[in-house]
Design a protein that fits this description.
The chain has 254 residues and is of the alpha+beta class. It is built from four helices and 14 strands.
């Protein structure tokens, strides 16, 4: 009888032990599931945070507003080629359906701007010469369009000797994302600044105003090392020649 009681007690302890271990196993599984859910949530949040970063403005005088809408209070404007910080916050205007990014400027001002005219994680660059446009980094995808010298763009990626760029061609109407040969691009700050001010100069209303504005660039020692200096001097001579012809015609009509 004593042996039987000992056997029953031993069996009882074994069953209790198995239940306990089974319970612990279930509890551990639940804990692992909970931990995985938290990890997934953190990963998702990190991915959202990773959306932030430097961005390049692709439109001169791009508005920065207090709210993400065209009717938002105007705060300031950005320059073509200016680097700003994208906070990672995005918003779609329920009326216009246009997307906006929240940006922070170098002077600390913050506001909302159209996402179309911003290149996130891009590097500002400028075309050194005429550059054929390609749909993909493949010579077989050449298009009939070209970038012109002094067109300012953002380089958003590279592959071998190709550059994936975003920007508006001087002769284009819209912001495009295309491929060009990387050798056609300069990322030197002096070239970018010279191109920006030369573009403004060449959009002056009269030939005389254009000549004067371009000459100011040539006379500015800060721009002396620009790759575009000879090009600008040639443009001045071209404008002077055209201006002289206009004046001669005016004198002939008197």
């Amino acid at each position: 009888m004593k042996k039987i009681l000992i056997a029953i007690m031993s069996l009882s302890l074994m069953v209790t032990s198995c239940k306990t271990e089974g319970g612990k196993s279930t509890k551990t599984t639940n804990q692992e599931t909970s931990t995985n859910e938290v990890a997934d949530e953190k990963t998702a949040n990190s991915a959202e945070e990773d959306a932030s970063g430097d961005a390049i403005c692709l439109l001169d005088k791009l508005s920065v507003r207090e709210t993400p809408t065209a009717k938002g209070k105007w705060i300031t404007s950005m320059s073509l080629g200016e680097k700003v910080y994208f906070t990672g916050e995005k918003h779609t205007d329920s009326v216009s359906k246009k997307d906006y990014y929240k940006v922070k400027l170098i002077d600390g001002k913050e506001g909302w701007s159209r996402s179309t005219f911003l290149a996130v994680d891009g590097k500002v660059g400028v075309m050194l010469k005429d550059a054929n446009v390609y749909k993909r980094p493949d010579l077989l995808t050449k298009t009939d369009t070209k970038y012109s010298p002094m067109d300012i763009i953002a380089v958003v990626g590279t592959q071998d000797d190709w550059a994936h760029v975003k920007g508006k061609r001087g002769e284009g109407k819209y912001i495009e994302e295309v491929w060009v040969k990387a050798a056609n691009i300069s990322e030197k700050s002096v070239d970018i600044a010279t191109a920006k001010f030369a573009g403004l100069a060449m959009n002056k209303e009269t030939m005389t105003e254009r000549i004067q504005a371009l000459q100011e660039i040539v006379d500015n020692a800060d721009f002396a090392d620009s790759s575009f200096m000879d090009m600008i001097k040639d443009k001045i001579r071209d404008y002077q020649s055209k201006n002289q012809v206009t004046e001669d015609r005016g004198d002939a009509l008197k």
